[in-house]
Amino acid sequence: MQDSVKPIVILMADDDPDDREMTRKALDKNRLANDLYEVTDGEELLDFLHHRGKYAPPALSPAPGLILLDLNMPKKDGREALAEIKADPLLRRIPVVVMTTSKAERDILKTYDLGSSSFISKPVTLGGLIDVVRVLGEYWFQIVLLPGGPDGR
């Protein structure tokens, strides 16, 4: 069960700096005190999760309680990263919310087939994103019981 005193870590994987900034602002506007870590592609996401490279010190890459995942990123896209996360016994319990600009049925079906927890089409305005993050925060941080152990997984 999740610890109600300590907010969970959010890990956002998105290559668009404007989308990352809007998400940070939406979290702030909704007064979500969760620590937010950011990576810019699927390879960096997996390095973070496995504490490799620049994320080798565990203090730089705490175990996330929730991953916000864009699909269209360079190097390794979100679909490939999602498949690897859900195939790994140490990572597969981490909820992954796909937040992407796509509304394509094939993307929705593929990500659910790969094990995503939710699929959200990213709003294009800050106001729309603030509303989505408010609901996301209520659902994932107040209603849902997340798995958690000594390492947060």
Q: Kindly state the mean pLDDT as a whole number?
A: 87
**Structure classification:** alpha/beta
User: Segments where pLDDT lies below 50 for 5+ residues?
Assistant: 1-5, 149-153
The dominant shape is globular
Percent of residues in beta strands: 5-15%
Order of strands, main sheet, comes to 2-1-3-4-5
Number of domains: 1
CATH architecture assignment? 3-Layer(aba) Sandwich
N-to-C series of helices and strands = EHEHEHEHEH
Largest sheet, strands/sense/barrel? 5 strands, parallel
Q: Would you mind describing this structure in some detail?
A:
The chain has 153 residues and is α/β, with parallel strands linked by helices. The protein has one domain (10-143): Rossmann fold (3-Layer(aba) Sandwich), CATH 3.40.50. Helices cover 39% and strands 14% of the residues. The protein has helices at residues 17-29, 42-50, 78-87, 105-114, 126-143; strands at residues 10-13, 36-39, 66-69, 96-100, 118-121. Strands 2-1-3-4-5 form a five-stranded parallel sheet.
In short:
The chain has one domain: 3-Layer(aba) Sandwich (Rossmann fold).
Ordered list of secondary-structure elements with their pairings:
Layout (H helix, E strand, L loop, with lengths): L9 E4 L3 H13 L6 E4 L2 H9 L15 E4 L8 H10 L8 E5 L4 H10 L3 E4 L4 H18 L10
Parallel strand pairs: 1-2, 1-3, 3-4, 4-5
Keywords, separated by commas or semicolons:
39% helix; Rossmann fold; 5-stranded parallel β-sheet; alpha/beta; 5 helices; 153 residues; disordered C terminus; globular; disordered N terminus
